[in-house]
Amino acid sequence: MGVFALLILGLLGGYIGSRVVNKSGEGFGRDILLGIIGAFVGGFLFRGFGGHGVTGLNLASLIVAVVGSIVVLVAFHILRRAV
User: Fold this and answer.
1) Is 23 left (phi over 0), alpha (psi -120 to 50) or beta?
2) What is the CA radius of gyration of the chain?
3) Which of 43, 34, 83 has its CA nearest to residue 63?
4) Neighbours of 1 (CB within 10 A)
5) How many domains does the chain have?
6) In sequence order, which residues have a C-beta less than 8 Å from that of residue 51 and are 6 or more positions away?
7) How many C-alpha atoms does 26 have within 13 Å on its Cβ side?
8) 63 phi and psi, to 5 degrees?
9) Between the CA atoms of 18, 24, 74 and 55, what dihedral angle is there, to the nearest 10 degrees?
10) What is the DSSP letter of 58?
11) Helix ranges restricted to H, the chain
12) Which domain holds residue 8?
């Protein structure tokens, strides 16, 4: 997958996941970063359960990125409260 497609997928996945988790977003840069990390985490989780990971710029990959970004954001908030 190209860098541009990964950035778009990360932005969308991070933005949607951030709205689901805390309703206000984490900011443009942090949403992209957490979305990209979430896309990798979501792909790892989905492949671990026998599904497909991020395969390109499509709806299934967006769902994987959103689920992964929600997992990453929940972990981020737990760690942020602990510190």
Assistant:
1) left
2) 12
3) 43
4) 12
5) 1
6) 64
7) 25
8) -65, -40
9) 0
10) S
11) 3-22, 28-48, 59-82
12) 3-82
* Residue labelled with tokens 């996945």: 13
> Comparing C-alpha atoms, which of 4, 18, 77, 70 is closest to residue 39?
70
Is 0.85 surpassed by the pTM of this model?
no
Q: How many residues does the chain have?
A: 83
Q: pLDDT in tens for each of the 83 residues of the chain?
A: 567 777 788 788 888 888 888 766 667 677 778 777 887 888 888 888 877 777 778 888 888 888 888 888 888 888 887 87
φ/ψ (deg, to 5) at 73 = -65, -40
In angstroms, the Cα distances linking 6 to 3, 18, 36, 81 are 5, 17, 7, 29
CA distance 49 to 20: 23
